[in-house]
Structure formats: C-alpha cells, structure tokens
Design goal:
Elements lengths: L1 E4 L5 H8 L3 H7 L1 E5 L1 H9 L4 E7 L6 H12 L3 E5 L1 H8 L7 E6 L13 E6 L4 H13 L4 E5 L8 H7 L8 E4 L1 H10 L3 E5 L5 E2 L9 E5 L8 H6 L2 E4 L11 H15 L8
Parallel strand pairs: 1-4, 3-4, 6-7, 6-11, 7-8, 9-11, 9-12, 10-12
Antiparallel strand pairs: 2-5, 3-5
Amino acid sequence: MIQDVTSPQNNLVKLAKSLDRKKARTESGLFLAEGARHVGEGLQLGWELEALLFSAAAEARPAVQSLAQKALKTGARVARVSDRVLEAVAKRDNAQSVLGLFRQRYTPLVDLENAPLIIALERIRDPGNLGTILRTLDSVGGGGVVLLEESCDPFSIEAVRASMGSIFSAPVARSDFAGFDTWRRVQGFKMAGTSLKGSTRHTETDFGTKTVLLMGNEQSGIPDEWALACDVLVRLPMAGRADSLNLAIATAVTTYEIWRQKGFKGARD
C-alpha cells in the first residue's frame, strides 16, 4: 500500500534525511539514490530497495506508476510525499521527484577474478572523484573498482550523484593493499600504476590482458612501497604549467587507453 506523507518528522523521512551522514549509512546499511531512472536501474539490476519516495506530481508519469508497483512487489515501503519533504531529504531546492533507499552492497574479490580491468584506488578522499571513476569504469565495461585501505564512502550522496547510476552496475570491493596485491598476482593481473616517476607514456605501455590500474590519492599519489609492487609505472605527458591532472580525469584518460588496447571490446558503436 502507498502511504501519504507530508511531515518531515515522519520516521521514514527522518531515516532518508539521515543518510547524508556516514554514521547513519553505516548503522542502517542503506544509501540514497535520486531520480526515477537511477532507482529503476537499481531495481532492474537486483539491488534491494528498502523504500521509495515520490511526489504527487511525479505519480502522474506512467514510468513512476510502474516503478511504484515494482517496488511494492519487492516488499519495499512506498510513500507519496510533498515537495517540502523531498527537498528536506535531498537538502536542496528543485530536488528529484523520486528517491530510493537501497541496501548497500560490496563485491568480494573472488567475483572479479575474470575481469579484464580493475581500477584500484589508494585512499581516495573525494566522493565526487570516486563517483566519476565508477561512471568511467562502467563506460568501458570494466570489472570493478577496489578501494584500498581507508577510502571515502562510495555510498555517500555525493559519490552516488557523481556516478550517474553507475553505482548499481560498477562493482565495488574493499581490501588492504597487501591482501589485494597477493590476490591479483595469483589471478594473473598485470598492475600498472600512474606516477611522475613512470618510465613510459600510457600510450606506449602494454597493459596486458588482465589489468589492474592503480591510482594514488589526490594529495600524494601512489606510496613508494606500492609503486615497487607494480609491474609497470606509467606517466601521462603534460605541457604548460600544470604538473598533474585531477584524479578522476587521469583515471579516465588511462582507462580509455587500456580499453583501446583491448580493441574497445563491448563498445556499442
């Protein structure tokens, strides 16, 4: 049954509002996705939907009506809410008219053993960068993103927004570096790290059949001991006064070169 909710003090609304805080996401195991398209993608790909919120105006759209019925069939709570409630949850004006509360999901490393490409991120701090990298990995049909050591939360609102729905289709795993390095060697992955100390340009590097692209964090790059574990260190050529690229952009540039070497396998064009 669809509930009518107009008060920001409703328990479901308060739960949804709390998901902008990491503590609440950790305790509840939930995260917030915005927009009918992205919520629909999550449902289609089998993610567990805890609750669906939508505005009365959005309900007039057949796609939202269908989404509400699908949500009800999964056992999720479904609520028709006021614009005031939506803006309170999203904490911005002109909020999306459909919001979904999903259960978080991490992928075990064993599920990535046949991936053609894994992007491994060292202590990434910026959720916008992380979301953009998830979107990039999804765009090239990569196997997954592995967060090494303590990294920012891929289920934060900022990361989910930046992923543009790819949070649902780009697998995310967590690991310490030592365990990951051992695992990738056993599975036959070649690990390439980007570094100012790299000896070859990314376009001149053989990334192999199964590739791990190791990217350092925004401040300091790959630690020296991690760089020693790489099979190859690559550099991106630079001109002008800038000496580095934004992490997400550097990852995208290198990722697309790796995909090019794999013949753009899976491309739709």
